[in-house]
Amino acid sequence: MEKVSHNQQLIIEGAGCASCVGKIEGALKATFGVVSAEMNFADRTVIVSGTAKTEELIKAVESVGYNAKPIDDSSATDALDEKEAADWAYYKKLMRDTFIALSLGVPLMIYSIVVGEMTVETNLERMSWLLVGILTFGVMYFSGKHFYVGAWKSFKNHSANMDTLIALGTGTAWVYSMVVVFAPDAVPLMARHVYFEATAMIIGLIDLGLALEIKARGKTSEAIKRLIGLQAKTATVVRDNKEVQIGIEQVLLNDVVKVKPGEKIPVDGVVLEGHTSIDESMLTGEPMPVEKAEEDEVVAGTLNKSGMILFKATRVGKDTALAQIINMVKRAQNSKPPIGRLADVISAYFVPVVMIISVLSALAWLNFGPEPAIAFAIVSATTVLIIACPCALGLATPMSVMVGVGKAAEAGVLIRNGEALQTASKITAMILDKTGTITEGAPKVTDIVLAKATDEKDVLQLAASLESGSEHPLAQAIVESALEKNIDLLKIEAFNAITGFGVEASCNNKALLFGNDKLMKLKGIDLTGFVEQAQSLAKEAKTPMYFAVDGELAAIIAVADPIKSDSISAIKRLQANGIRVIMLTGDNKETAAAVAKKAGISEFLAEVLPEDKANKVKELQEGGEIVGMTGDGINDAPALALADVGFAIGTGTDVAIESADITLMRGSLHGLADAIAVSKATLRNIKQNLFGAFVYNVAGIPFAAGILYPFFGILLSPVIAGAAMAFSSLTVVSNANRLRLFKAKEH
Asked: Mostly located where (predicted)?
């Protein structure tokens, strides 16, 4: 039996910096059965796709020196609670470690400032500093153990990371200080200086920085929390004629679920009994409740406002629309835009380079520095190691992506991956499908022009019977028109959809043909005297279609699909951002021109086939445009897949949504402008973070190495380096959280 590919989420323990990301992802990708692995360093989680077992994934992570724990995502609430509990426990541990380290480090720092040099010259000073050295070792064990264990694991795996730098820096300072205490004669008198305060303070400050970072990171998950908060926790199911209240994870497919007024819909389903109104604003953004009766669909997370209903569960657990939205947001938050992958590559080489610079700095001081040269060498090498930890570089991208994707979700915009997030900010041309994208997608029959003395009811009956086999919105309009007039539909045979032209079938031994003028010409139907009438209807923004019976034109049926109330203002927003807007439609030229004019679009292409849409995307791309494509139908899928960024209207077909990079859940074109605005804000935030992190590391290393000493006599302290390193990470986290204040333009 063939294994089914699925997603698994793991919490990674011991990943201290961005250089860890590449190693963990590499180990997972090398595991048999793994298709992809994307780690979110900011969240310390990794999502793995493929057929590999959880145990194999955990072994792969452990093989490169880290620990992993699976997150059970059968319940999004439980998964988030588990993650938050783990973060909270780690936060409390780090704060305890900080207290222990700073309890020793701060008094020692004050002593060094007040008294001055922390030298070893007498036996009393030796005994005193020996005691301090032992206490400092206690700090290293209790508060800094995770750094040394991580460094040892990295060493065993022939690699280096942030833990390596901190362990080397603090370890070097402590070992040198103990040499001074135990063998002062081995060290020149001027160099008999201990650095226990540096070791304790560095560990304390970095632990404090990590703790505050975890607390700040919690704010980035607010969007996911809000989505999860939409889920009901329990459901009332009817089993063996008895009502039973169970957790939503226990609801089974085809269970009969009872929902009372004021309760949330627990799973997706179809109404069996009752009538109510449902608040679907969480999905559609529409404040008005939607009436629901028998055979209507209900969606998990929406709110039952009035009546009691019974419905059959059709999608449960991870398959509900809400669960898929939550999963999509999680995956997007874990994905990396191209700019982030570049940062990961830099980080992978950064630590070894820093270690080399540290050694070179020490050698330079030993050979060219003033006395005590060894003391200066120790200080500069330690400071370089501490200040250069690439934590900020690793956080720069994932923190911004987490917040940006979350803000987009709040606006009803679901971004599939980091690449789409980045590319959306560069879009120069936006192609819009007409039906269901610019227009409501709920067309109505407006005119029936009979070609000969036939009964309108008979014509509508045959036309509706034929179109009942099609999913096209225009076809559905004709079917609905017949049903509204209580016209029964007839059985059809040999139904055939001719893409881009129309449909044909037989009914009661009559050959039926319905479609555009091209289809009529193709089949040899005479349109003499009726083309002008069709054009007249088209100029009124109506779509005229021809209906033929047994080789003769029977009628022209016109359908109008009104433009969405906010499409015109949304298109203006796109154009105001310098984006070229183009409308594509399979409709005739006259109707397309009328709709484009009303919508404020100067460029349009009519009578296009599905492949024509894809060809137009390709043509624009070859002309240097970054192309966005927005559609909601099956015939839009090829163009959506080919576009630089494909946008699907969430109310459309599953095929279109699956083909898209970004889904607009609320069906409004303002979602396009919102998505682009969020994309630009997020990318700007990422660049700010990367610039800050890069400048910090590039500028910090020369200062740490002592570039200021020849000119101003200033040599950076390892303690200051530790504080700066912690502060740089906090700065990145805080800047990313500024995105939470981002608001899409009111519309």
From this structure: membrane
